[in-house]
Amino acid sequence: MDLLERFPRAWCDTCETVRPIVLDMMKAKEKHDHDAADIVCEECKSILVTLHAPSAARSGVRTKKAAKASEMAAQEIDRLIDPSAPDEERQRRKRRL
Asked: Which of 6, 35, 66, 75 has the fewest CB atoms below 10 angstroms from its CB?
């Protein structure tokens, strides 16, 4: 069930009463790097609340950066760990760090 169907009305401070609401969706653009939605009073058109969420396009960028950072950290750990230590011990130390 859609949230707007379950909660079709909200308190409006401007009207000082409970009014029907409209959900106004906004896609991420150059100015804003995330999607957003305004909950608007249907009667006076006041914005009651703005909801923000990360953009789907941006979340992939963070994943790539995190993977690259993890790989770089693994390479540095490999460089610093004692090469004479057994492979199992090196892997245990790497996981611990």
From this structure: 6
| pTM of the predicted protein model | 0.48
HEC string for 4-39: HHHCCEEEECCCCEEEEEEEEEECCCCCCCEEEEEE
Q: Report how far apart, in Å, the C-alpha atoms of 23 and of each of 1, 51, 57 are.
A: 15, 10, 22
User: Considering its fold, how many domains does the chain have in total?
Assistant: 2
Domain range holding 39? 3-54
Span 19-30, pLDDT tens digits? 999 888 888 776
Q: Does residue 71 share a domain with residue 48?
A: no
